[in-house]
Amino acid sequence: MILADKIIENRKKNGWSQEELAEKLGVSRQSVSKWESTQAIPDMKKILHLSELFGVSTDYLLKDDIGEEVVPTTDTIDYGQENNLTVRVSMEQANSFLDYNEKAASPVSIGVMLCIISSVPLLILLGLSETERLPFSEYIGTMLGMIILLIMIACAVTIFIFTTMKGKAFKYLEEQNIDTDYGVNGMAKEGRSKYEGIHTRSMVIGVVLCIVSAIPLFITMITEYTSAKLGGALVLYGVAALLTLIGVGVKILVKTSMIQNGFNKLLEEGDYTRLNKRASRWDGIYWSIVVAVYLGWSFMSGRWNFTWIVWPIAGVTFVGYKEIIKTVIRAKNK
After folding, report:
1. Domain range spanning residue 254?
2. Is 158 within the bounds of a domain?
3. Hey, which of 14, 129, 176, 262 would disulfide with 172, CB 3.0 to 4.6 Å?
4. Is the same domain home to 257 and 109?
5. What is the pLDDT of residues 235-288, one digit of tens each?
């Protein structure tokens, strides 16, 4: 095993990202990245520091013919699974996962978009009923909108279930510690590097769409000062346009993030460091509660033109929630 692979393996065993290891060594993340991709070799001072951090000998780090060396240290924290299982990932498994992940990104992002825009038909029908343009009663229009909403959510849930079942074989990448065969890390880093430009553009487009989504609503709100009757209907159309733009923007963000995170899962970086894997166990419960609050509030109040605010609030608070969970995990392992 060469030095680059030994650095990767021991960094992951300690649950550190490249940034965290770089901070401990007093170097840049780019330096650690170059060491791990064999583009550069650390000097002797850094080798000694690595030896101390990893709890291994310098001979183990420098000599390719010396295999895995286990020297336990008292200050090493393992942020992996409680049973400390490590799964080996071959090049074939890694390629199969990346292929599945890229194919799954589109349907999953569409499912998320369907959830966000599910109330758009209802809002449009309510707007038409206010201007008396429906060929049937307001009650029938509302019921029709609710039926369409439930069908769209059902379609989204179906997509999520089928995609999850197909990807069940790769679930361990999100939950367990992994070690990769020689060449897998280099392949994942190369793939991520090639996708970086697309990812950046997609993130910019998605974020911009979410930001400008409020413009149609502001424009339609102005009409309330000119025509009370028409203004009320136009505001509903404005909310529908807002949700549509947010839905499209989030779809783009979800798709590109899934593809990018596919590489991060193999590298155990970003949201998939060993610490983050443990912190993510409760994410499903968090978002289930958010969905329940959104649907419960919407059905009970009937204010579909307002309850959408649950989603941006949930997104913002999710960041704080994750940090709290990680702080608790760190404290527990001290």
Report:
1. 105-172+190-268
2. yes
3. 176
4. yes
5. 888 889 999 999 999 999 999 999 999 999 998 888 788 777 777 777 778 888
